[in-house]
Amino acid sequence: AQKVTQAQTEISVVEKEDVTLDCVYETRDTTYYLFWYKQPPSGELVFLIRRNSFDEQNEISGRYSWNFQKSTSSFNFTITASQVVDSAVYFCALSGVGTSYGKLTFGQGTILTVHP
Amino acid sequence: DTGVSQDPRHKITKRGQNVTFRCDPISEHNRLYWYRQTLGQGPEFLTYFQNEAQLEKSRLLSDRFSAERPKGSFSTLEIQRTEQGDSAMYLCASSLAADTIYFGEGSWLTVV
User: Which residues 15-74 of B have a C-beta within 8 angstroms of A?
Assistant: First the structure.
């Protein structure tokens, strides 16, 4: 069975601080995908990134960066110089491949609050 | 390219009534997924379609739930004889094969 753990239930920071959201996963699959989604108060899940298990390169997109470490089964997400608009619930998710693709297992989510 | 569209956005219904939610995926996306999310939890997988074929159903999907995707376009999720425990947000998502999965804004259901 697959499992995703986001140990931080809530994080509160002041604007311009850097913040890292942790994600640890469990799977018996050798090939899989990892995702991060942002859920603002409106409810829509906004896609942030998808990473294949064979691609361990870290990725940076503007103020966002992701650190994928297969050895520790972690896929952490860092926001640099946080802004109030970053306030949302962030979900890490895991998917198999083939016919299992899209059957996402989500973590419990981390509520991020950025104060001005 | 319009996103995934869900209707209605909010539904309040009395226990025992039937409700139906509609999802219009992104054009040409052949895969369509339904998830359920309760307050304070991450979304949970319910079922998915590849074109018009329903390929997998979660054990969460009791026999009161039925989903269809006629002609491989829009999808409907019907809940019969609603119970208070069905109160949740129902999320639809779509993807082109094994590409990025995009979610809609969700349909909130409150059973009173």
Answer: 31, 33, 35, 40-45, 48, 55-56
Mean of the per-residue pLDDT values of chain A: 95
Amino acid A77 reads F
Q: What is the mean predicted confidence (pLDDT) over B46-69?
A: 93
What residues of A are in contact with residue B40 (Cβ under 8 Å)?
108-109
> In whole angstroms, what is the distance from residue B73 CA to residue B29 CA?
9
CA–CA gap between residue A112 and residue A14 (Å, rounded): 11
Query: CA nearest A110: which of A11, A3, A2, A12?
Result: A11
User: Cβ of A93 and B89 within 8 Å?
Assistant: no
Kindly report, residue by residue over B72-105, the tens digit of the pLDDT. 899 999 999 999 999 999 999 999 988 999 999 9
Query: What would the mean pLDDT of A69-94 be, rounded to a whole number?
Result: 96
Contact B55 A35 (CB under 8 A): no
Q: How near does any CA of chain B get to the CA of A42, in Å?
A: 7
- The rounded distance, in Å, linking the Cα atoms of B21 and A115 is 37
- Determine contact, residues B93/B35, Cβ cutoff 8 Å: yes
Residue A110 to residues A8, A79, A92, B89, Cα–Cα distance (Å) = 6, 13, 9, 18
Collect all residues of chain A within an 8 Å Cβ-Cβ radius of residue B100. Answer: 47, 50
Q: What percent of chain B has pLDDT over 90?
A: 88
Would the CB atoms of B105 and A43 count as touching at under 8 Å? Answer: yes
